[in-house]
Amino acid sequence: MRNFDLSPLYRSAIGFDRLFNLIESGQNQGGGYPPYNVELVDENHYRIAIAVAGFAESELEITAQDNLLLVKGARVNSPAERTYLYQGIAERNFERKFQLAEHIQIKSANLANGLLYIDLQRIVPESSKPRRIDII
Predict the structure, then answer these.
(1) How far does the signal peptide extend, from start to end residue (predicted)?
(2) Do the Cβ atoms of 32 and 94 come closer than 8 Å?
(3) Residue 23: is it exposed, middle or buried by C-beta count within 10 angstroms (0-12/13-18/19+)?
(4) Please, are residues 65 and 98 in contact by the beta-carbon 8 Å criterion?
(5) Which of 62-76, 77-91, 97-111 comes out lowest in average pLDDT?
(6) Mind listing the pLDDT tens digit for each residue in 4-18?
(7) CA 129/CA 135 separation, integer angstroms
(8) 3-state class of 27 per DSSP?
(9) Residue partners of 120: CB distance under 8 A and separation at least 6
(10) Cβ pair 50, 96 in contact under 8 A
(11) How would you class 116 by CB atoms within 10 Å of its CB: exposed for 0-12, middle for 13-18, buried for 19 or more?
């Protein structure tokens, strides 16, 4: 994958900082751990499923601020020193960020069978919905 230098655009584009930050963060999102799915349940409902096998509820943290959803997993107890012949299960801490569109709200989160489910809903205020203008 190519890395693009967006710094020349910062000099002449005013007010597009957020857009450039989104593009850069998309380029720099390292690794695929933990794996996740984003599902469209219906027109206004979404579900994120994150594979967090081995993490307890107390070791997971979900934070929403502005249009950013941050999911962190941090092991409280360091596992005892083990000798592996093969280690295919990652047991490391993680931080996964999701950029949310406007009017997306987090409705619930639950942990089941090693998957963390986060349910989201788009709630558009009446003032932002299209309205019909009668011609008189």
Answers:
(1) none
(2) no
(3) middle
(4) no
(5) 77-91
(6) 666 666 555 566 666
(7) 19
(8) helix
(9) 45, 46, 47, 48, 100, 104, 105, 106, 107
(10) yes
(11) buried
What are the φ/ψ torsions at residue 48 (nearest 5 degrees)?
Answer: -105, 130
Residue 107 is predicted with a pLDDT of 96
**pTM, full prediction:** 0.72
Domains with residue ranges and CATH for the chain: 1-30 (no CATH), 32-126 (2.60.40.790)
Strands of the sheet containing 115-122, edge to edge, are 36-42, 45-51, 115-122, 104-112
Do 51 and 114 touch, CB atoms closer than 8 A? yes
The candidate with the shortest Cα–Cα distance to 118, out of 58, 43, 63, 54, is 63
Q: Please, what sign has the CA dihedral across residues 111, 112, 117, 119?
A: negative
